[in-house]
Amino acid sequence: MKDNLEYLLNHAAKNIQAMRKSLNMTQEDLAYKAGIDRTYVGYVENCKHNVTLGVLVKIARALNTDVLDLIRPITPKTDIERLNELFPFIRKYQKLAEETCGINDVFQDNGGKLLQVLLVTGLINIAGREGNDAEDDKGNQYELKSLNAKLTSSFSTHHHMNPIIIKKYKKVNWIFAVFEGIELIEIFQLTPKDLAPYYKKWLKKWKADGNKDINNPKIPLSFVREKGKLLYEAGHGGLFSKVKLK
Q1: Is the separation of the CB atoms in 121 and 230 below 8 Å?
Q2: Catalytic residue among 29, 145, 186, 194
Q3: What does the DSSP 8-state code read for residue 182?
Q4: Domain 2-70 has CATH 3.90.1640.10
Q5: pLDDT at residue 1 is higher than 50
Q6: Which residue among the candidates 29, 45, 113, 133 is catalytic per the annotation?
Q7: Are 184 and 177 in contact (CB under 8 A)?
Q8: Known catalytic residue: 212?
Q9: What is the CB neighbour count within 10 angstroms for residue 241?
Q10: Domain ranges of the chain
Q11: Distance (Å) of CA 122 to CA 24, 81, 109, 198, 232
């Protein structure tokens, strides 16, 4: 009986660690989501502590799996098996995007990232390419920008920057979303006053170049972090929280 228990605990330890790492979770993240002490997670993963069924259930929920999967021997899955396992959750994500924000394809035009920003800020998506990107429940409109900090350090703006676009930009606040890969890590808000130096710079360049549209001038992330108001910062466990725009 003792040998059987040790066998199950050993598999549980290996499986918990493997699943946690596959989700890019630290022991702290797992402990936070499971509602248990971090040191306890370390003991479980190193087979230094007999884990109760109740704790296994909490860990399984935190890992989005069944408790039985924690004690079964891990067998390598084919790519198709992994795709079939994951795709139902992607369909749920797409359904959430359609029902809440009218986003019909989370894989197109950063739709999946836009969904995160809209749900966290409570902003409403404005469909179409003309005008601004989103509005709040009072009708105030916003320009939305995002970047992947793993790939670039500046936000793109507009591929035909000119006085008409600048005039439009001057009327609204901007929301800057910072991602690392697909993970939303920060959201900043900047006002027209904050961005005035760039509007002045772009207008001056437009005139100096013979009234020629500027191709996608950038706004550095460092400037956004220095001048912007931090609205959101990713917390422990990869869980989202809603913020209020002021």
Answers
A1: no
A2: 145
A3: T
A4: no
A5: no
A6: 133
A7: yes
A8: no
A9: 9
A10: 2-70, 102-238
A11: 27, 36, 20, 27, 12
Q: Tell how strand 141-148 and strand 173-180 pair up.
A: parallel
- Which phi-psi region, left, alpha or beta, contains residue 6 (left: φ > 0; alpha: ψ -120 to 50)? alpha
* Number of helical H runs and strand E runs in the chain: 9, 8
Class of residue 179 by CB neighbours under 10 A (exposed 0-12, middle 13-18, buried 19+): buried
Q: Is 133 a catalytic residue?
A: yes
**Cα dihedral 113→117→122→125 (10° resolution):** -50
Nearest by Cα to 147 from 219, 58, 235? 219
Question: Phi, psi at residue 142, to the nearest 5°?
Answer: -140, 150
pTM across the whole model: 0.75
Other Cβ atoms within 10 Å of 48 Cβ, number:
12
End-to-end Cα spacing for the chain: 61
In three-state form (DSSP H/G/I as H, E/B as E, the rest C), the secondary structure along 78-93 is CHHHHHHHHHHHHHHH
Residue 2 — very low, low, confident or very high, per pLDDT cuts 50/70/90?
very low
The CATH code of the domain at 102-238 is 3.40.210.10
DSSP letter, residue 232: E
The one catalytic residue in 29, 45, 143, 186 is: 143
Tokens linked to 22: 């596959």
Task: Check if 143 is active-site.
Answer: yes
3-state secondary structure of 129: coil
162-220 pLDDT, tens digit each: 999 999 999 999 999 999 999 999 999 999 999 999 999 999 999 999 999 999 999 99
Coil, helix or strand at residue 218? coil
Helices (H), 35-173: 38-45, 53-62, 79-101, 111-121, 163-169
